[in-house]
Amino acid sequence: MVKVAVLGAAGGIGQPLSLLLKGNTAVTELALYDVAPIVVGVAADLSHINTPAKVTGYKGDDELERALTGAHIVVIPAGIPRKPGMTRDDLFKINAGIVKTLATAAAKYCPKAFLAIISNPVNSTVPIAAEVFKAAGVHDPKRIFGVTTLDITRANTFVGELKKTDPTATSVPVIGGHSGVTIIPILSASGHTFTDAEREALTQRIQYGGDEVVKAKDGAGSATLSMAYAGARFVASLLDASVGKKTGVKECTYVQSTAVEGLEYFSTVVELGPDGASKIHPIPANLDAHEQKLLQAAIPELKANIQKGVDFVKAVS
Ligand code: NAD
Ligand code: LMR
């Protein structure tokens, strides 16, 4: 039996993500939770799809316990999205509290579940969830993940477009965090060569791909469909490694890490296994000069984002 809970399942990401998860035949139970009552209708709708997962909708605080109990994986896309002119950090004020509440419930009702956190600002919401788990005495850093997969799907798409190669066969690691300068594409590991101008343009587009969508949606939200695709891929990898017992499953994901001195959280390639993160790869040894510069630019912002998350939990507990 494999139960996946989606918290924020009625939202722009939550609905298509739940659809894709309903299509994953490794899932036997899909618990859809939201504060918006329409989540019950979303669950009824998805329940008519002839795949194994039994789908149930849960609305409001009173039903959170039932949504989480027995969950193997908890995916969290709950929270407000950006509007043009906002940074992800501008979402902290509202989303920090939402993630803290949901992590508190997960620590209580499914402390062994893998947590896949999509809610922004990911650089801070992952430390928030970890601090909540620490306070509850159930913290296992191998089980808490910030979902940065969309940065990798974007990098693969943009490089595939430029080099006219199959984007599904393109693989660009993206390390660091998930906002602007903290997003560090490792183009030197893509197997392609780039002119300086190409490298600059690609880096800029990958780092600010989220802003491209926010601008195009013009006040109506941020990336939802590509995020659902990326989130479903990340959950599929967690399932392959845990339930499927597949070896060699790797994803770039933002986790507690020692990859960069002075930063408690960082995304690099992470090997996944039955108990979560089984090996966290270091930063690639052969970064080029451009990538070295990107890394140095990312560190101060990441440090501040992490501290903000940690301080938030300490201040309100
Ligand atoms: P949305 O507003 O469309 O949906 C959010 C959903 O969360 C809504 O249904 C809302 O009712 C629900 N919600 C709010 N508070 C809740 C709570 N306490 N418990 C349960 N549900 C709650 O937003 P969206 O477009 O789906 O984006 C959601 C979040 O994902 C945003 O913070 C956004 O910035 C982030 N995001 C992250 C990535 C990434 O790469 N990690 C990509 C895209 C978006
Ligand atoms: C993204 O990268 O698309 C998300 O983090 C949403 C955003 O605010 O850009």
From TrEMBL:
Pfam families: Ldh_1_C (PF02866), Ldh_1_N (PF00056). It catalyses: (S)-malate + NAD(+) = oxaloacetate + NADH + H(+). Residues 148-313 form the Lactate/malate dehydrogenase C-terminal domain. This is Malate dehydrogenase. Homodimer. NCBIfam families: MDH_euk_gproteo. The active site is at residue 178. GO terms for molecular function: L-malate dehydrogenase (NAD+) activity. The keyword Oxidoreductase applies. The gene is MDH1_2. The keyword NAD applies. Belongs to the LDH/MDH superfamily. MDH type 1 family. Keywords: NAD, Oxidoreductase, Tricarboxylic acid cycle. GO terms for biological process: malate metabolic process; tricarboxylic acid cycle. PROSITE patterns: MDH. Residues 2-146 form the Lactate/malate dehydrogenase N-terminal domain. NAD(+) binds at residues 8-14, 34, 95, 118-120, 227. Substrate binds at residues 82, 88, 120, 154. Its EC number is 1.1.1.37. GO terms for cellular component: cytoplasm.
